Amino acid sequence: MACCLAAPSSAARHASPVLDADTTRQLTVAANTLLQHRSEALVEKRGHRHPETPAEVLGVRISPRVARVQERAVHELENRNRAPVAGGPAYTGARTRLDARKAVRTGDRIALEAVEHTVVRYGSGKVTQSVRRRFEFKERGEQLVLVGERVLDPGTHPVNDPAPGSR
User: Fold this and answer.
1) Is 163 helix (H, G, I), strand (E, B) or coil?
2) Separation CA 82–CA 159 (nearest Å)
3) How far, rounded to the nearest angstrom, does the alpha carbon of residue 66 sit from its chain's CA centroid?
4) Residues whose CB is less than 8 angstroms from the CB of residue 64 and which lie 6 or more positions away in sequence, other chains included
5) Which domains, and CATH codes, for the chain?
6) What angle is formed at CA 26 by the lines to CA 32 and CA 166, rounded to 5 degrees?
7) 16-51: per-residue pLDDT in tens?
8) How far apart, in whole angstroms, are the C-alpha atoms of residue 115 and residue 135?
C-alpha cells in the first residue's frame, strides 16, 4: 500500500495572523480620525478652522506622507461645493464611523479592512454612504505607523474624499 504525505504549502506556513481586538480597535480609531476630519471639512464652520492632522492617535503614528495627503484632502474639501448638488442646501453636519472587518499582519505590515459609514446632513435631508477601505500600517520597532489607505470598491467615490486624481 502506497502512502503519500502532502507537505504543507508555503501559504499554510506563512499564514497571516489576525490581530487581537485591542490592536484592531487602536488601528481603527486612528484611521477613523482621519476620515472624520475629512467629513467635517465638508461642513462650513464660520471663523473656525478644522483641526490639523494629528501626528499620532492612540499610539499610532501618522506617516508624514499620509499627513500631507490628508491636509491636501481637507483643504480641497473645505474649498469645494459643500452641498450634495451644486447650488443646493449646504451640508450642516457630518459623521463617520469605521467598522473594522479584519486586521491581518504580514511580516512588518498590517492591513486593516473596514467599512466606512458616513452620514452628511443638509437642509431636511441626508446623504448616507458605506464604503469598503483598506488601511496599511507598518511596524517600526514597537511603533505602528499608518502609511496608506485606499478604497476597495471599484468606481466608488466617497463623499469625504477629494476629487479623483488630486490625492
Assistant:
1) coil
2) 10
3) 11
4) none
5) 17-151 (3.10.450)
6) 35
7) 588 999 999 999 999 999 999 999 999 987 666 667
8) 11
